[in-house]
Design brief:
6-stranded mixed sheet, binds inosinic acid, alpha/beta, binds magnesium ion, 9 strands, 23% helix, 3-stranded antiparallel sheet
Length: 179
């Protein structure tokens, strides 16, 4: 059973609901009178983005992109776009949604990419933030919860492609990695 692989639940489904409501309310306030485009980074942004946008009460469009990041030679790493958005973002207010910020490499590169596309504004939302993992200067504009530098799964976050469908976030048992 998938659930038996979890050592400890660190964010319950109820807490996730509360985070989505709180962030959604804040974003609603900040984007009054605007029509932002909310862009989710696949696949981890699911199901966070679906829940979050239900709490954002303004006109908006949504889109998705898929990138992989390489935390290689340069300190800022780099990203490769596997699937790009389908919307013209020039002059738009863009909100990027990701599951978690660790090194910050992904979101820093995405932010720079969208600045080159001449957006009007760009902000970032993440459900979880691991500030201890940071390697670049990047702060999320909206962060749900600060978590310790530990590998977590569930609610969009995966280990080898699995566990994204757990309705909560938990720490995997050591034997799962060592199996
Ligand atoms: P970074 O901020 O560029 O290091 O990368 C963030 C991405 O790494 C996230 O979008 C996740 O896909 C992945 N990631 C980082 N920490 C975790 C974790 O604890 N569990 C699962 N995925 C993680
Ligand atoms: Mg991800």
């Amino acid at each position: 059973m998938m659930e038996n692989d979890i050592l400890k639940v660190i964010v319950s489904a109820k807490e996730i609901d509360e985070i989505c409501a709180r962030l959604g309310k804040k974003i609603t306030n900040d984007y009054k009178g605007k029509t932002p485009i909310v862009i989710g980074l696949l696949k981890g942004c699911q199901p966070f983005m679906s829940d979050l946008i239900k709490h954002i009460n303004t006109y908006m469009s949504i889109d998705y992109m898929s990138v992989s990041s390489y935390d290689g030679m340069s300190s800022t790493g780099s990203i490769t776009i596997k699937k790009d958005i389908e919307t013209d973002v020039r002059g738009r207010d863009v909100i990027i949604v990701d599951d978690i910020i660790d090194t910050g490499v992904t979101l820093l590169n995405i932010t720079n990419l969208f600045k080159e596309r001449h957006v009007k504004s760009i902000k970032t939302v993440c459900l979880l933030d691991k500030p201890e993992g940071r390697k670049v200067d990047l702060k999320a504009d909206y962060a749900g919860l600060i978590v310790p530098k530990e590998f977590v799964v569930g609610y969009g976050l995966d280990y080898n492609g699995l566990y994204r469908n757990l309705p909560y976030i938990g720490i995997l048992k050591r034997e799962v990695y060592e199996k």
